[in-house]
Amino acid sequence: MRKKFRYIAALSVFALALTGCGGQASSGDDDSGGGLTTVSVGQVQLSIFAPMYVAQKKGYFKDEGIKLSLKNIKSGQDGVPLASSGKLDALVAGFSAGMFSAIDSGLDVKVVGSMGVQPAHDEPSPSALVVSNKLVKSGDYKSLKDLKGKKIAAAGGIGGTGAYYISMALKKAGLSLNDVKLVNLGNPDIPTAVKNGSVDAAFASSPFYEQVVNDKAAKKVWTTPKGTSGTGVIYGGKFASTDTAQHFFNALARGAKDLQGKKRYSKENVKIIADATDQTPKQVKSVPLYTWLPDLHPLPKQLSEMEKAWMDVGAIKYSDPIPQSKYVDTDFAKKAKTAK
């Protein structure tokens, strides 16, 4: 089991300290030879960013005159300063309270697209909120309102996407993050914490939430609504102003279109995702995949709700929401829709 999950656990370690990121990225201006422009992209190697891997393997970036230079980063929060300074052109990453704080401090980045979104509920869920069966069997947990005062684990802690998802569940019960005790645990550590009683509940990704459910240690009680997304495409401000930025997005959107519906589980696409994330095809198929919007358009309403949830719990210190015109740009997705 540990071998099966090794690739996910390894993502918590900053294995590559952005080799080659010490200098300036191309910002869409430098010709790399052969008529291609190099675009430097920060990434965490996860299947949720499959549109980029599919587009790369199938030559869609090359069709747009682009050569990708992928740089491993620990998180989106770590990549935002690099994109703002021009050391990276773009990121595919998760959102966080730290990202909003960085933008508020003046860092120049734009959220230009979404990545993985929650599939319909008639499909297996890539993530879920689970509650210890000890609480369920004792009667201490009957509904979401009974989470008040309980310890709930989530990767990234109070400022991570998991905390935002938990806030969505709590809101249904008239609660907020201030009504629970949030514990910062990496996904691989969550099953053990639930089983030994260190936490009462957890929001975790597959296969970790499934592990405790299958072991009868926890019950799945909630998952995010269809269309919910905590990840996206972020451009550095300088790169966003170049023609290459639209070409990059066009290729991404082509990749997303190839992953619609059951096509995301095709043998070809699964192999591409496996190779890009250092997995085997069997490992990729063993966990549910997210879905992707065909044009990868950003989700401003969700970004606003994320910011508010983190402000309410004190993960964000400023008092007034950032005007979305400052950090969200929907034009790239709109233009990608009409691109040939």
TrEMBL record:
Residues 49-256 form the SsuA/THI5-like domain. The keyword Signal applies. Keywords: Signal. One of its GO terms (biological process) is alkanesulfonate transmembrane transport. Pfam families: NMT1. Its main location: periplasm. It is found in: Periplasm. Residues 1-25 form the signal peptide. The keyword rRNA-binding does not apply. One of its GO terms (cellular component) is periplasmic space. Belongs to the bacterial solute-binding protein SsuA/TauA family. This is NitT/TauT family transport system substrate-binding protein.
